[in-house]
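Appendix C: a fully annotated inverse folding record. The material below is reproduced so that readers can follow the format used throughout the book. The structure is listed first as tokens, followed by the designed sequence.
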């Protein structure tokens, strides 16, 4: 009986992970189609952090900087070979 409960718990956990991954994929799709959406989310996060009474330190950075950071982590493209050679 305990093994069955553990099995069900694992299935429920895996289903939750699957649903979370699907939602993250949807969010990535929206953000890729509407670049301003990430700026709005950034501003919303700043507002939420500022309204809380905590010791979080937040360093606002220009959104353009994130493009350079993302590109820095992309794998290098192999050089294209010359035709006939």
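Designed amino acids, in order:
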């Amino acid at each position: 009986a305990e093994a069955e409960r553990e099995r069900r718990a694992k299935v429920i956990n895996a289903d939750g992970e699957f649903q979370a991954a699907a939602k993250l994929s949807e969010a990535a799709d929206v953000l890729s189609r509407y670049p301003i959406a990430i700026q709005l989310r950034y501003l919303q996060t700043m507002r939420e952090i500022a309204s809380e009474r905590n010791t979080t330190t937040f360093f606002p950075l220009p959104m353009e900087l994130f493009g350079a950071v993302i590109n820095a982590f992309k794998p290098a493209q192999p050089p294209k070979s010359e035709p006939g050679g």
